[in-house]
Design a protein that fits this description.
By secondary structure, the chain is an alpha+beta fold. The protein has five helices and five strands; from the N terminus they run βαααββββαα. The radius of gyration is 16 Å and the shape is globular. It starts with a strand and ends in a 7-residue tail after the last helix.
Amino acid sequence: MPSIILLSNDLFSKWGFEDGREISQWLLEYDDEHTVGFNHPDVPEVKSHELLLKRLIFKYLLPKIDAELKVRYMVNNTHNSFRCFTINDKDLPEDIHYDNDYKPPFSVTVKISEEDVLKEINDVNNTTSDEIEKELHSLNDGWD
């Protein structure tokens, strides 16, 4: 059964979370895992990949990190849209997201089961477009 693995270090990289394609990658793995011969499964459609990734980060990854992080949603971004800019009330330089050598003071990995991912997909799919927009942009309160 395919799972999603989230790495805390991805919060500090422009290319994190499979360059922002973590959900698409999981859907491909889901299809591969459940295909028998020429019979492909009904791969779940996801109304908003970004909202799903945001919810997985906030529900499964951030609670496992022993630090207070402020994560920002990068609007209209073709790469990783979720990046950390503050650790324990200390602002980080924006250029760390382009520095492959930056190492945050922690390293956390979480594995999210297929069952949990499918539940979160269902929840996202039951969210209106306005609610999706509001939830994503709420991460930017106080940011210019």
